[in-house]
Amino acid sequence: MTAGRHTHREAERAESFGEALLGGFLDRAHELHPDQVGPLVAATVVRLGGRDTQLLLQDYGQRTLIPHPGGGLANGAPLPIERSEAGRCFLTSRPVEVALPDGVRVYLPLLDGGATAGVLALTLDRVTDDDRRVLRRLAALVAGLVRTKDGYTDQFFRTRRSEPMSVAAEIQWALLPPLAMTMPQVAVAGVLEPAYDVAGDSFDYTLNGPFLHLAMIDAMGHGLDAATMATVAIGAYRHARRTSVELEKIYRFMDEAIAEQFAPDHFVTAQMMQLDTDTGRLQWVNAGHPAPLLIRDHHVIGRLEGPTTLPVGFGGAQPEVNERGLEPGDRILCFSDGLVEEHANGQKEFGEEQLITWIHRLDRAERGVREVARDLSHTLMQARDDTTTDDATLVLLEWRGPALDGEK
């Protein structure tokens, strides 16, 4: 190798400023104490010439973004998701820049698997394309770091908890997958209400190869009894699903688990689905749950009706698997009965018609499933004066179409 080629290769391998900055962040992240997440993020932003750094985390009610405390991080009041630039960044999952008298305030979504955990906020004197590229990558590293360290500490939980939380709700939140997932072929988003006192409602999903598996459950009763039943039901669902059994056998396994652990009059309604994201072929088993709504071109075109079986725990007959082909862009709304059976101020039930009316108002082409699910749940809660006598949970699923080349 000539000296000229050797020198050229050395130059190619030399660290750029951005590589050194992000590489230094990664080098420290592996064994970083959770207390040091904030200081590391703030110090990295300072090296970029930034200041007033904030880690804004979504509260469990999905209404505000709360500054996470930590050395080097700026304090501040919680910001409403609905009426703030940080909230706009959070809802759209896109960076937002706001001109200030002394610089530019930059908000970057903390994306992890398509879900947005919060927002990284900072101020620069000016913003270049190089800054934007490095900041976008830094935000991705911060999101992954927060997600990883969250498993080792209560600090992020405490930041996100803006109200006292019941023991039953603590159990349910620990049971849940991420509230949202966005992939090239499929997107999922869920909301639990009341967030700080939910008990019997839960949902679960996973993406195994081309197949999305999704379940929503509603355990009878309230409080710890309902939370315990929900835990057993979701645990049984996951166990059966991980052995790659069919939907009929998943139902049977869940049914036996509830029947063996609880009294004969205890039950769990359930909706279990499997979507082939390559073809749009949807299969489902309904065990006493409200029929999901099919949304096409942002309008409800019908219910996913078909043969049902008894709720889990009652020993129902072998369920019949329902099947339907979806079109790209179709959305499926699964919901618990608390969403439509609640009485507002002692008046008549909400009913599905009112739910459908709000879907038509809120589900628009430019809005993703996470934004629509959140706004739909909150709008219905506000209509009943933010009170409910039952859990009111929804999950919105979108099939985005078959994989394109390079997406698998």
Automatic annotation (TrEMBL):
Entry annotated with the keyword Methyltransferase: no
Keyword flag Cell inner membrane: no
InterPro entries: Bact_Sigma-Reg, GAF-like_dom_sf, PPM-type-like_dom_sf, PPM-type_phosphatase-like_dom
PPM-type phosphatase domain mapped to chain residues: 183-399
One Pfam short name: SpoIIE
GO molecular function: phosphatase activity
Residue ranges of coiled coil: none
Alphabetical keyword list: Hydrolase
Full protein name: SpoIIE family protein phosphatase
Taxonomic path: Bacteria, Bacillati, Actinomycetota, Actinomycetes, Kitasatosporales
